Automatic annotation (TrEMBL):
UniProt record similarity statement: Belongs to the peptidase A1 family.
Entry GO MF terms: aspartic-type endopeptidase activity
Leader peptide range in chain numbering: 1-21
Active-site residues, record numbering mapped to chain: 98, 322
GO cellular component, one term: extracellular region
PROSITE patterns cross-referenced by the UniProt entry: PEPTIDASE_A1
Natural source organism: Sesamum alatum
Family matches, as Pfam families: TAXi_C (PF14541), TAXi_N (PF14543)
Domain Peptidase A1: 80-449
Record keywords: Aspartyl protease, Glycoprotein, Hydrolase, Protease, Signal
Keyword Transmembrane helix (UniProt): no
Protein name per UniProt: Aspartyl protease
Length: 454
């Protein structure tokens, strides 16, 4: 969640001049920001490190029927991006879709600066930005605007004396911390445009400065400032194409539904969302918690302790679904149980590739050179309500050079047996590949089924 900032308002405001039921489908594609890497192990290490860093942030955050479809593209840095159009006339920008946060923001003004943004295909001095002065519908959100409290619930506004119309106090500047970087700016009221209808007075962040965030972020979390909440969606769904299509024109659909349209069908498994923990950390209210009953490897229950599977009142433990995390994260005690079971079952036939483990940051890895076919134990997540997610092999093991395979789940260095702050398990997008995922907001449940995403 964003936190209050002491940045001088005038330093941000002076950067721009401002004039005082349906379904949408968008294209979803892997997001294209990855540092230059010389070999595949470095890329794995980058994704593993980014996933663990993102998990650390999520655990300890500092913040009538018609259809719309939006293309969703896979990107090399590990996320998925969509294009959205804001303003009058419209300005179209790319956003990373993120179910682990709620604010929607874009790089803003001609003076936008991004620190440490030397990514592949990104020129830090030529990042596409939104220009408020070119939009007749742009307005800075005022402090007394109720929507200011979506981001700053406890904000204190000055009382306007004399002529109320002369009161020009604005909503405070925000600072948002992500696992990979941060961003800061002011809240705007703008028009979000879709072919079916415009969404007027949409609150969006106009970021002036960011660190390691060359693209905007479209927050799909559970907060009132999120895109689903502001659009009044009853449901949204997506099917993530494989990361092997990273940085290509291949995409799938992100479907936004505001009416009571039917879901995917009887083949969809559903598990209820959990009530978010009443923690003092407001960021936990953004997350989509689900109840994971057990994890099996080759049909064997790894017997993860209950305290890791179900969050307590402070938000310690439990499982969330996050499109912004690449590799699934597990607290060390749970990870070790899963890794040990794979080592026990796979180690009978294949030796450990310890050198690759050191280079990639992933484990366990196994040597499979000379093998015509490889048989590995099935990894399954069993959720409340009987829903079982049986992962395709490519969702939890990566193959390299036809000689090595590595498990694509990451962990931390938490004390043995202890539950750290925040979610204990974060289901990342790598494990969501080629699954139809449905966030049924009206019925408070998550649906999923295997599907070849196109």
């Amino acid at each position: 969640m964003p936190s209050l900032s002491l940045l001088p308002l005038f330093s941000l405001i002076s950067l721009f001049s401002l004039s005082s039921a349906y379904t949408t489908t968008l294209s979803l594609s892997p997001a294209a920001f990855a540092p230059p890497l010389s070999n595949p192990w470095q890329r794995l290490n980058h994704l593993a490190t980014a996933s663990a860093t993102r998990a650390h942030h999520l655990k300890l955050p500092k913040t009538n029927i018609s259809a719309t479809k939006v293309p969703l593209f896979p990107r090399g840095y590990g996320g998925y991006s969509i294009s959205l159009s804001f303003g009058t006339p419209p300005q179209t920008l790319s956003f990373v879709m993120d179910t682990g946060s709620s604010l929607v923001w874009f790089p803003c003004t001609q003076r936008y600066t991004c620190n440490s943004c030397n990514f592949v295909s990104v020129n830090p001095s030529n990042i596409s930005t939104f220009i408020p002065r070119s939009s007749s519908s742009s307005r800075i959100v005022g402090c007394k605007n109720p929507k200011c409290r979506w981001v700053f619930p406890g904000v204190q506004c000055k009382e306007c004396e004399g002529n109320p119309t002369a009161c020009t106090e604005f909503c405070p500047p925000y600072i948002i911390q992500y696992g990979s970087g941060s961003t800061t700016g002011l809240l705007l009221s703008e028009t979000l445009l879709f072919p079916e209808k415009p969404v007027n007075n949409f609150v969006v962040g106009c970021s002036i400065f960011s660190s390691r965030q060359p693209s905007g972020i479209a927050g799909f979390g559970r907060g009132p400032e999120s895109l689903p909440a502001q659009m009044g969606l009853k449901r949204f769904s997506y099917c993530l194409v494989s990361h092997r299509f990273d940085d290509t024109p291949v995409s799938s659909d992100l479907v936004l539904v505001s009416g009571a349209a039917a879901g995917k069908g009887s083949a969809t498994n559903y598990t209820p969302f959990r009530k978010n923990p009443s923690s003092s950390n407001p960021a936990y209210q953004d997350y989509y918690y689900v109840t994971l009953r057990k994890i099996t490897v080759g049909g064997v229950n790894v017997k993860a302790p209950y305290k890791f599977l179900v969050p307590d009142s402070d938000g310690n433990g439990g499982t969330i679904v996050d499109s912004g995390t690449t590799f699934t994260f597990m607290e060390n005690p749970v990870f070790e149980l899963v890794a040990q079971q794979f080592e026990k079952q796979v180690g009978k036939n294949y030796s450990r590739a310890t050198e690759v483990e050191n280079q990639s940051g992933l484990r366990p890895c196994f040597n499979i050179s000379g093998e015509n076919s490889v048989i590995l134990p099935q990894l399954s997540f069993h959720f409340k309500g009987g829903a079982e997610m049986v992962l395709p092999l490519a969702d939890y093991f990566s193959f390299f050079d036809d000689s090595v395979i590595c498990m694509t789940i990451v962990t931390n260095s938490a004390a043995e047996g202890e539950v750290g702050p925040g979610p204990a398990i974060i289901l990342g997008n790598y494990q969501q590949q080629n699954f139809y995922l449905e966030y049924d907001l009206e019925n408070e449940r998550l649906g999923f089924q295997k599907q070849l995403c196109k």
